[in-house]
């Protein structure tokens, strides 16, 4: 099998700290191109990885030098760049949220089908060991019937790690489309769908800006979610957690409670109804704090899908279903009503 020649479009923090290092670690990949509208940034990254620098993604895609690209741009560019790449016969790994609307998401999925190329969305929480173990325990019936859950993802905000600080696109509605709910909340909607093994079909939400006065996107969101079997729970996404990052999930079941990423040592704690406790030390979740796992496994999953010609671990359809939940959350906040995601989920499955 020939080496997969890869280009990275958007050389900000996620590209520099996740995509580029993980591609470099992969023996089946050659990084041949990088692209950023900031020419100096593109040149610096290109020198570091021995790749050709571009400032225009259309030129990169027209060069015919890449088999696959990572799209690590501001959210509003995810769909148009991904669609162009797929139409050029290039495999795409797109950062989350995959798009800014269900129509964009569907257009991306259709472009992948028409081109026969892979489209994967970068939802890395599915590949965390504690999350995989929790899914396994639920799937095999160890927890019995699941009643409820609560999940949170919060930290001090992108200005702490973005290459552009407070000037980052994350805080600009015309580029980001959505704030903490799109940055962090979509991770958790995807995770809940993965762990519980069913769809979220109804959403009620408060989505607001309260901590970042310089931003015009949300920095705090709290949602009530209901799954197709009737499991109810809450999701919180925040850029206003001034202390340690919180990336925890707790699942309440008939036979016990799963505490995931809620302890400094044990990444999964199972508290059984019998009083027995099982502690799992599975390694820390990838985070902005020190000590998290070095490998998101997203890149290796994407490359494997290309090399082995198989369905990506997080397909465009899966990304669209997770996106539909945050779109419903926005609608719920605006209308002050519960919003069904059922239609969006059915459309994503077509």
UniProtKB/TrEMBL annotation:
Domain of life of the native organism: Bacteria
GO molecular function: nucleotide binding
Pfam families found in the cross-reference section: GFO_IDH_MocA, GFO_IDH_MocA_C3
Residues covered by the Gfo/Idh/MocA-like oxidoreductase N-terminal domain: 4-123
Start and end residues of each GFO/IDH/MocA-like oxidoreductase domain: 131-258
Gene3D superfamilies referenced in this protein's UniProt entry, alphabetically: Dihydrodipicolinate Reductase, domain 2, NAD(P)-binding Rossmann-like Domain
Database matches in PANTHER family: D-GLUCOSIDE 3-DEHYDROGENASE, UDP-N-ACETYL-2-AMINO-2-DEOXY-D-GLUCURONATE OXIDASE
Descriptive protein name: Dehydrogenase
